[in-house]
Specification:
The protein is an alpha/beta fold. The protein is built from nine helices and 13 strands. The protein has helices at residues 6-12, 24-35, 84-94, 104-115, 121-124, 134-142, 160-164, 213-222, 257-268; strands spanning 16-20, 43-46, 52-53, 60-62, 75-79, 100-102, 150-154, 170-175, 184-185, 198-204, 224-234, 271-280, 288-296.
Length: 298
């Protein structure tokens, strides 16, 4: 079917709309569909790693069934996973279903044709609630002491960490767009690493974005005097092993083994793990959140 007709088909159908993937891509598609005339009552999420109610859209999140062959007339499935590697796995999983199925690329192209624009990170962020990271940031504050005078916050988002630091601490937030007057614009995959040597480098839920993970972490270590603080999330279900297949490090950022790889890389560049904490994930999913504190070997 022509991609230009996908959105009309979805709107005109009476079928239930399933957005497969309750992350940023799914929330973006949800936002666009509901803003252009589709009732939120028709839409729900399927996700391999989350269930319950989405904290951003309030839509229901269900675990995908083994098959929906008996419900062919009930669903339209929209794959909403942004990562190409993860999208391939979900596409393979969807072969068990006999419903109408559209890929994320088809949906994006259809929206682009309809609006004359693309789906930028700025548009994705319209569905994002920065406050869900504040619990992690409160933990990060506990790992900062009076000797930490310069702190770089890589991918700082709303820059909440800066509001909790003493005024005499030099707080340097970076992001790919300007969030405030003090934002240092730095795109992980386009710009040179900032020529700044900080006492503390904070990496809070950002390791999913640098495509050359090892090079990025090497730059972090060589530009950090005292501490590297990392918070990230990994899959905890048996299905997570599906992500453990690619040679590229970036393709495995959600695997439990990724934590061991992070530790090895930072060890290689002069950092040693001092503390590790684990807990429930910040967004209500069944992922596990990992906090790591590294200190410089002297």
């Amino acid at each position: 079917m022509s991609e230009n007709n996908i959105l009309d088909v979805i709107r005109n159908s009476k079928k239930e709309i399933v957005l497969f993937g309750a992350g940023r891509g799914g929330r973006l598609i949800y936002n666009y569909l509901t803003e252009t005339g589709i009732s939120s009552k028709r839409i729900k999420f399927w996700d391999n790693y989350k269930k319950g109610v989405d904290v951003i859209t309030s839509a229901t999140i269900e675990t995908p069934p083994v098959s929906v062959e008996t419900d062919t007339e009930k669903y339209i499935i929209c794959i909403c996973v942004i990562s190409p590697t993860s999208s391939e796995l979900v596409t393979e999983q969807c072969k068990a279903y006999s419903c109408d199925i559209y890929s994320y690329t088809e949906l994006v192209d259809a929206i682009r044709s309809e609006t004359g624009g693309g789906l930028s990170w700025q548009e994705i962020e319209k569905t994002y609630d920065w406050t869900i990271h504040r619990g992690q940031i409160l933990r990060i504050i506990d790992w900062i002491d009076d000797y930490d005078r310069t702190i770089i916050d890589l991918g700082a988002g709303e820059e909440y960490l800066g509001t909790l630091l003493p005024p005499d601490v030099n707080y340097i937030p970076t992001d790919y767009v300007r969030r405030s007057q003090r934002t240092l614009i730095y795109d992980f995959n386009k710009d040179p690493f900032p020529d700044i040597y900080a006492d503390v480098s904070v990496l809070n839920q950002i390791l999913y974005y640098p495509l050359d993970t090892k090079r990025f972490l090497k730059n972090v270590c060589t530009h950090t005097n005292r501490k590297v603080i990392i918070f990230t999330s990994v899959n905890t279900t048996d299905e997570s092993v599906k992500y453990d297949y690619a040679d590229e490090l970036h393709a495995n950022v959600k695997c439990p083994k990724f934590i061991d790889i992070i530790i090895d890389i930072l060890n290689e560049f002069g950092m040693r793990m001092k503390k590790r904490i684990e807990g429930a994930n910040f967004d209500g999913s069944i992922d596990k959140e990992i906090g790591l504190l590294f200190t410089r070997v002297v």
